[in-house]
Design brief:
The complex is a heterodimer of chains A (about 120) and B (about 230). Chain A is mainly alpha-helical. The longest helix of chain A has about 45 residues. Chain B is mainly α and about 230 residues long. Classes of the chains: A mainly alpha (about 120), B mainly alpha (about 230). Chains A and B meet through α1, α2, α3, α4 and α5 of A and α2, α3, α4, α5 and α7 of B.
Chain lengths: ~120, ~230
């Protein structure tokens, strides 16, 4: 369990993600590209689970902490929030509920359909 | 003495201590309403106000904490890898669910905000609220929103999804843990996912990180197309 090695693996994938964005200009964040490439490399055996697991678990378990400074940024838009808090809150809460319901239903329903197809094969 | 409160290392230490105490508080009282991120943000904002420190000064320290957000998102590749085999088995349902969730989210938040009289700047800032901060802020500024407002709303959505996501899943009668995890990740990104791992376990968390990945991709690709169609 070499933590520097684990750190190196994560930052290499982040750097590859940055490189992909820099080369292609696609509007997808480098971290998302790095995440997908890391999962793919683990699957292909290029990276072993033991080479990232400890540090990766530390980061994902404490993800919330890294959001705190962005949250404090709310201080900069108090003006907008104080005049438009009602639409902001209602739209955010309702839309979050809608996303959960629509995503979950579509997933259950389309799995039901595809299972049905396989059974008829 | 008051000048020392602006010391960058003091501000970093303060952020750690406040967050740790907030975690401790929740462990002791076990209330999911007492989200450590929410409590930390409230306490830090109160501190900056009372010590008369502007956000830019705090951010000089805060950016070193925020810096770890990107490697942490890369690290979500590990739980994602753990579920690859079940993902491969249901690729089409997953893509359909994500596409539906992404479009429903963008359209609903814009329509509801418009109905309640939000201005154009606020509506654009709210549009990418379901995805993780770095993506959401980029989309917001590219389309003419206010990235600070987006970041604040994104954090609130995550906290809200972490607190109420499970009840919402139950309310909408979603039974499979795969669909539940997927929904929470789609609606409330990494903060919701952290709660999903904590309360639902590995499998729930893996589908949740899948939801946040796919919705991040879809929103980055679709928001620049859908918002103009809605008139923004």
């Amino acid at each position: 369990m070499n933590l520097i090695l684990q750190c190196a693996v994560l930052f290499c994938f982040l750097a590859i993600g940055e490189l992909v964005v820099w080369l292609t200009g696609i509007p997808i964040p480098s971290s998302i590209i790095g995440m997908v490439l890391l999962a793919a490399s683990l699957e292909c055996g290029i990276v072993k689970l033991s080479q990232v697991e400890t540090f990766a678990n530390f980061l994902t378990r404490n993800l919330g902490f890294f959001f705190v400074p962005a949250g404090v940024g709310v201080i900069r838009c108090m003006g907008l929030i104080s005049t438009q808090w009602l639409p902001i809150i209602i739209a955010t809460v309702l839309s979050t509920f809608i996303i959960i319901a629509v995503t979950g239903w579509t997933h259950q329903w389309s799995r039901h359909i595809t299972k049905h197809f396989h059974r008829n094969d | 003495m008051i000048e020392f409160l602006r010391n960058p290392y003091f501000l970093i230490a303060l952020t750690f201590v406040i967050y740790l105490s907030a975690c401790q508080l929740r462990r002791q009282f076990g209330l999911s309403l007492m989200n450590p991120i929410l409590i930390s943000v409230i306490l830090l904002v109160a501190f900056l106000y009372s010590a008369d420190i502007e956000y830019e000064t705090y951010y000089e320290s805060g950016k070193f904490i925020e810096f770890w957000l990107k490697p942490a998102v890369v690290a979500l590749g590990v739980p994602l890898y753990g579920q690859l085999s079940s993902i491969r088995k249901q690729l089409i349902p997953l893509l359909m669910a994500e596409l539906a969730g992404c479009i429903a989210g963008l359209v609903s938040v814009v329509a509801i905000a418009e109905l309640f009289g939000a201005t154009k700047e606020v509506i654009i800032s709210l549009a990418p609220k379901a995805v993780t901060t770095p993506i959401a802020m980029e989309i917001s500024s590219a389309l003419g929103g206010n990235p600070s407002l987006t970041a604040a709303v994104v954090v609130c959505v995550g906290i809200f999804g972490g607190m109420a996501g499970f009840s919402m899943v139950r309310l909408s009668r979603i039974k499979s843990s795969m669909a539940g995890g997927l929904s929470i990740g789609t609606a409330s990104h990494a903060v919701g996912t952290a709660a999903a791992i904590e309360r639902g376990g590995e499998r729930y968390g893996a589908f949740s990180s899948l939801g946040l990945t796919l919705n991040g991709l879809f929103t980055a690709l679709l928001a620049p197309v859908i918002l103009p169609l809605l008139g923004y």
